[in-house]
Design goal:
This protein is α+β, with helices and mostly antiparallel strands. The protein has a domain of 289 residues: Up-down Bundle (Outer membrane efflux proteins (OEP)), CATH 1.20.1600. Helices cover 66% and strands 15% of the residues. A four-stranded antiparallel sheet has the order 2-3-5-6, with no helix packed on it. Helix 2 runs parallel beside helix 5, helix 4 runs antiparallel to helix 7 and helix 6 runs antiparallel to helix 8. The radius of gyration is 40 Å and the shape is elongated. 27% of the residues are buried.
Length: 452
């Protein structure tokens, strides 16, 4: 029975392996939303900034740990020779040896620290908030970069397709011109030799532009994979289109930025953290009240036990105790200097806030004006595209019946191509304006869904 089942199992496993290998070798096409989700989840720079948050959490754990008892224990084992006697007289016997075991434990529980532990906790909590917000800043930066690379890939693809279309038509025009040259010998066409050379030169120019477009597409594809944190990527074949959005007023975007931009929260939390550290460093000059306890024990069969409590007997003795205590750190100059350093760091963040707030407002205004320009530019680009198409269609019809010279045909072809190229580039500018405004206000203003 096993011999009958085993080949089937091996066959199924082999098929599964082949399918999984094929899947790994040919990744599924990714849309823009999928790329952005992958960027948020797997981008290395975002992960690096999140580890800063974890480091701040560890500092908070350290502050919490300072509230708990501090304990230390020591255990020692060693060989020792025999010795008998008392506190006054003793006799050594180097011929007999035995073990010596000793150990001790100390426990200190802080009771009152004049706000030192509390200030460290507050500093760590504020630091977590600041690092979280800075991680959000990095996330928004990487998302904007991913959009730029993705739109660049779409633009390069569209321009490559445009060049293909123009090349195809121009190739047909060259063929038609060459056939007309043969008929010219019979006096039936106005096509001249330099018209054919002009068409062929333009055709080769388009083929060279095709190489540039393909190289740009390949570079953009690898850039998308890099920012998305994946090794291999296949981008969904979609033409560049304008992202849907609901336009608001400049004042509304400024209000959103004040509420959503993570830099504002990061600056506030950073100042709170530095001021809390200043208080903690200053509190080092005050004593720490604590409850302490200690215990120690020793044992050795080759050392005579001393029965008197006044005899120092570390070899066969158990002792311990507990009590209240004060601990002083007398480096007052160092405490003052450390406190001053933290206060200076807080004031530095305060000064940064004084120019960061107007800077963010300027960034929002600039992104808003770029969006307005891009929206108006789209209207112009659409009209230009329509005019270029009409011009080209008219010239192409004239060429087909032999009334349009090659020079006019090439001019209309160039005008139509430039109009379509301008339309694609304006689409790219519009989407990038939306991306920059989303980053400037601190939230996505289009319909893209990628945040967890």
């Amino acid at each position: 029975m096993l011999r009958l089942i085993l080949p089937q199992v091996v066959t199924i496993a082999a098929i599964n392996y082949l399918f999984s290998t094929a899947a790994l070798g040919a990744p599924e096409p990714m849309s823009l939303e999928q790329v952005l989700k992958s960027t948020v989840a797997q981008n290395g720079q975002i992960k690096e900034s999140l580890q800063e948050v974890e480091a701040a959490r560890a500092q908070l754990d350290q502050a919490h740990a300072a509230m708990w008892p501090r304990a230390s224990a020591t255990i020692l084992a060693a060989p020792i020779f025999e010795e008998t006697g008392d506190a006054v007289h003793s006799k050594s016997n180097w011929k007999r040896w035995g073990p010596f075991l000793t150990g001790g434990v100390q426990v200190v529980q802080p009771i009152y620290t004049f706000g030192q532990i509390g200030s460290y906790k507050k500093a760590a909590e504020s630091q977590i908030t600041a690092k979280n917000e800075l991680a959000s800043v990095k996330r928004d930066e990487m998302v904007a970069m991913a959009k730029e690379f993705y739109y660049s890939y779409q633009m390069a693809s569209d321009l490559s397709d445009l060049v293909d279309d123009l090349t195809g038509f121009l190739d047909e025009a060259v063929t038609t011109a060459e056939e007309s040259m043969k008929k010219k010998r019979k006096g039936s066409t106005p096509v001249k030799p330099h018209d054919v050379f002009r068409l062929k030169t333009a055709l080769e120019d388009l083929r060279q532009k095709k190489l540039y477009a393909d190289q740009g597409r390949q570079t953009a594809e690898r850039a998308v994979a890099w920012v998305a944190g994946v090794n291999e990527i296949k981008i969904a074949k979609k033409s560049l289109r304008a992202e849907a959005f609901q336009k608001k007023t400049l004042e509304e975007y400024l209000t959103t930025a004040k509420a959503k931009r993570p830099e504002f929260k990061a600056l506030t939390a950073g100042q709170e953290a530095r001021l809390a550290l200043r208080d903690a460093k200053a509190a080092q000059s005050y004593p720490v009240f604590f409850v302490g306890a200690f215990g120690s024990a020793g044992w050795s069969p080759v050392r005579q036990k001393q029965d008197s409590v006044f005899a120092n007997d570390p070899f066969n003795q158990i002792q311990g105790g507990a009590g209240l205590g004060l601990r002083f750190d007398l480096e007052f100059a160092r405490h003052s200097a450390e406190a001053s350093e933290q206060e200076a760091e807080a004031m530095k963040l305060k000064a940064k806030e004084s120019y960061a707030v107007p800077g963010i407002e300027l960034q929002v205004r600039k992104a808003f004006w770029e969006l307005e320009q891009a929206v108006q530019g789209m209207e112009v680009a659409e009209r230009r595209k329509a005019l270029g198409k009409k011009w080209f269609v008219q010239s192409a019809m004239g060429w087909s019946i032999g009334i349009t010279p090659a020079k006019d045909l090439l001019e209309s072809l160039e005008g139509n191509g430039l109009a379509k190229k301008n339309y694609v580039e304006t689409l790219f500018s519009l989407n990038m304006a939306l991306a920059h405004l989303s980053q400037a206000v601190g939230e996505e203003i289009t319909g893209l869904k990628y945040r967890p």
